[in-house]
């Protein structure tokens, strides 16, 4: 006979691709480090949120994260549990998590019948004890003959009157390979340091050069980063790992399918798109950057219902990611409107 068990799981869409995480009963912590579900993204806090799971359902709580947690586009309040319904979309940093709940059938274990006890064999009668006053003398075992000892040696075993040879010890593990030699950052040396110019001449020795070179290899890269931090703030020159932080300024979330060129292109125009968010131009420009095609947006047609517009892409549905395009339209359209998505 089968029984049903409630399961809770998350369908995860992130920078590394898609995956599925089955929520355990009880508390599951979501965060960047030291969490049950690790979401490796700079916008995710160390312990970002937690999900409480039970047979009755699940609730999610934002644990005072830096960038917040969104459920279906609405940001949660800190430490305010929010119930999860199947199909709810959770947004944490660059990750999109879709909550699912279902039942699985578990076969009940059949109870095996108790084993039938085997009949007890009759015990042999004990030997009769000698009469009182007489001593019982046990005879020693016979000593092996010279012939049997010779046969034991021929067969490969030790003689019967000698102790067995202990087994050989296992071989020692091989020594680990030496780590590679330390290489200083480009432009620095292990034997020279510019810090030496700030010390009196008495300290200008070979040892002091090598000693100061250790500190310079640590502090010099930090100085370079601070002196050239303006490079990090421009979409064309910022490192690829720094782009999601720039997008957070404009409430943008990159899709994992976007390549680096598209991410930099939308950041270059993000200030214009953000200022005109909710307009036909902004929506058309976002779709053009992603698809490379100029969409046709009609909001004045005679057959359109009030507060409804159509978006027509000059491509087949199989040639683009329709799910992502739907998410882009929902994020950049006016909140009170609806739309029809069409393909040519």
Can you describe what's shown?
This protein is of the alpha+beta class and 344 residues long. It is built from seven helices and 14 strands. The strands form three sheets. The chain has a six-stranded antiparallel β-sheet with strand order 2-1-11-10-7-8, with no helix packed on it. It has a five-stranded mixed β-sheet with strand order 4-3-5-6-9, with no helix packed on it. A hairpin with a 2-residue loop joins strand 1 (2-14) and strand 2. Helix 6 runs antiparallel to helix 7 (322-332). The two termini are 53 Å apart. Residues 133-137 have low confidence and may be disordered.
Features:
alpha+beta; single chain; flat; 344 residues; 6-stranded antiparallel beta sheet
How would you summarize this macromolecular structure in one to three sentences?
By secondary structure, this protein is α+β, with helices and mostly antiparallel strands.
State the total count of DSSP E strands. Answer: 14
The chain-level structural class is alpha+beta
Rg = 38 Å
**Poorly predicted tracts of residues:** 133-137
Largest sheet: 6 strands, antiparallel
Question: What is the fold's blueprint, element by element?
Answer:
Layout: E1 2-14, E2 17-23, E3 26-31, E4 37-38, E5 49-54, E6 57-62, E7 70-71, E8 74-75, E9 82-84, E10 89-92, E11 95-107, H1 146-154, H2 206-227, H3 243-248, H4 260-268, H5 270-275, H6 280-291, E12 296-298, E13 308-313, H7 322-332, E14 338-343
Helix pairs in contact: 6-7
